């Protein structure tokens, strides 16, 4: 992170969304103001809240409600959608299965990825082929989450009733920008970097991959119970490069190569991933902590009606370090169970990620990062990153 920021700025992005598809958006005063704020936030904190984002509050809340309901179910029920190599690493992982810095994270989660159809990305995408594992209970879980994802990505994958309701929402709000929030924030960030608004369209992130984690953090009392007495870290310090799937499942995939200890050590090696993250967190439980340059932890206090956004490592590469991803962690000290839904907006699966020429010029003319193909990194994450990175 770049500075000793003391707070995380709140940015009203509605002027940006209103003009996002206007070819002259960069000449608009409202857009320029938002772009300036984005630039400052990305340089100073790597984190910002967005308000005026156009996603209905009722949907944002409902997504957290169904997530609470799912995690409230007995373990035998939750495990019905267990994540494994056979599910393309999609599905439920229990508390402690995720590891950061060799410590089990005190959270459970459902991991989802954009659907990969058979043969879509050849042999590279094969291990992750498949569609997401949605629970049957609560019964509206799948439809609700698919609607939510379509609004965040602009991928109108749900036909029938939900597409129709989305259409009505769009008409009511008179704004197409509702349907692709992440892309539109990226258009603002592209301008903030000094590029054109469509810098990340096309081959870079015009057909974006996405990852979503629905995360449940047990309350402090149960977290300190007998099962894992010392661990109260919900999610260890990290930048957004993504999470490794359950080690047990990875061993099922590459059973003979690694000992569990070695797996954990290699897991610590950094993987570049993630462009922009949008976190939808419980309104009443402050738990997400962001580290500034001196190591002070700045709380990303929940602010109703906002998403917490942070830039990921892929943007760090594209911007040649002009924008950095910031370390953050989660500790739920409240006795209440906390839920957050982290949505990771990613480059195209086949995208080649390397410092943009104009960013290189702005940062001393030297390329600070090597070229990476996003899909290779992603798949390596779930398979061989343990071996080669
Ligand atoms: O739970 C949160 O508030 C954030 C989670 C997070 O940082 C992540 O999953 O990358
Ligand atoms: Fe994160």
TrEMBL record:
It holds the Pfam family 2OG-FeII_Oxy. It comes from the Eukaryota. InterPro entries: DIOX_N, IPNS-like_FE2OG_OXY, IPNS-like_sf, Iron_ascorbate_oxido_reductase, Oxoglu/Fe-dep_dioxygenase_dom. The keyword Metal-binding applies. Keywords: Iron, Membrane, Metal-binding, Oxidoreductase, Transmembrane, Transmembrane helix. The keyword Metal-binding applies. GO terms for molecular function: metal ion binding; oxidoreductase activity. The chain crosses the membrane at residues 148-172. Residues 208-347 form the Fe2OG dioxygenase domain. Belongs to the iron/ascorbate-dependent oxidoreductase family. This is Fe2OG dioxygenase domain-containing protein. It comes from Tetracentron sinense (Spur-leaf).
């Amino acid at each position: 992170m770049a500075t000793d920021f003391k707070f995380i700025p709140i940015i009203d992005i509605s002027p940006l969304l209103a003009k996002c598809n206007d070819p002259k958006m960069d000449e608009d005063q409202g857009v320029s103001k938002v772009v300036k704020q984005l630039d400052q936030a990305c340089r100073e904190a790597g984190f910002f809240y967005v308000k005026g984002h156009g996603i209905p509050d009722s949907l944002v809340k409902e997504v957290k409600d169904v997530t609470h309901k799912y995690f409230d179910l007995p373990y035998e029920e939750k495990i019905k959608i267990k994540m494994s190599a056979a599910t393309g690493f999609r599905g439920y992982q229990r508390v402690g299965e995720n590891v950061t810095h060799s410590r089990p994270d005190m959270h459970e989660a459902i991991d989802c990825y954009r659907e990969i159809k058979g043969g879509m990305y050849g042999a590279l995408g094969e291990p992750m082929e498949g569609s997401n594992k949605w629970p049957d209970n609560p019964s509206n879980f799948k439809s609700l989450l698919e609607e939510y994802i379509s609004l965040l990505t602009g991928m109108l994958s749900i036909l029938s009733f939900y597409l129709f309701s989305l259409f009505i929402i769009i008409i009511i709000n008179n704004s197409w920008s509702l349907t692709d929030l992440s892309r539109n924030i990226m258009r603002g960030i592209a301008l903030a970097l000094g590029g054109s608004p469509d810098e990340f369209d096309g081959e870079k992130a015009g057909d974006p991959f996405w990852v979503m984690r629905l995360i449940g953090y047990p309350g402090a009392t149960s977290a300190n119970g007998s099962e894992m007495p010392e661990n109260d870290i919900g999610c260890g310090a990290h930048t957004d490069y993504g999470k490794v799937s359950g080690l047990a499942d990875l061993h099922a995939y590459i059973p003979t190569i690694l000992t569990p200890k070695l797996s954990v050590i290699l897991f610590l090696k950094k993987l570049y991933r993630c462009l922009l993250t949008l976190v939808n967190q419980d309104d009443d439980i402050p738990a997400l902590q962001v580290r500034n340059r001196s190591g002070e932890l700045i709380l990303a206090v929940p602010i109703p009606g906002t998403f917490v956004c942070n830039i990921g490592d892929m943007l760090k590469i594209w911007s040649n370090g002009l924008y950095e991803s910031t370390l953050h962690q989660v500790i739920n000290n409240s006795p209440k169970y906390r839920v957050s839904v982290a949505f990771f907006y990613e480059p195209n699966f086949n995208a080649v990620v390397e410092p943009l020429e104009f960013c290189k010029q702005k940062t001393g003319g030297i390329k600070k990062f090597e070229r990476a193909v996003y899909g290779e990194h992603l798949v390596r994450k779930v398979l061989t990153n343990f071996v080669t990175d």
